[in-house]
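Reopening this one. Same input as before:
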Amino acid sequence: MTIHQRTWPVLLFLWAAVIMVVSVIPGADLPSLSIWEPDKVMHVFVYAVLTYLTFQWLKRFPSIVSLNKKAFISVTVCILYGFVIELIQLILPTRSFDMLDELANAIGCLLCITGILVFSSKRK
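Same output, byte for byte:
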C-alpha cells in the first residue's frame, strides 16, 4: 500500500470529524460566512468533499469491483452521515433539525458522484 493510499482514510476521518464538530457547535458561536451567505452552498460543498474522500477510500477495496457500487456506497454512507448529524442537532438545545440542510447534503453527494462517474467514463 502506497503512502497515497494510506492518506485517503486519514483525510476522510479528519473531514468527517470536522463536519461533526462544526455541526454540534452552538449556532450562535459559528462564524458568519460572507460568501454569498446561504449555508446550503456550504452544505453542498462540504458533503461533496466527504463523498469524494469516501469514494477514494473505497477504491482501496478490491472486493468492491464495480465503480457504480463504490459510487452507490459512497453516496449512501455520506447521505446517512448527514442525516445522523441532523438527528443529533435535533436533541441539542442550540441547534435544530433542518431537512433543507439534509437536502443540500444529498445534492452535494450526488453532484460529486455524478462528476466522478462522468469523468471516469471519459477516461475509458
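So the earlier flakiness isn't reproducible anymore. For the record, The first helix runs from residue 3 to 24.
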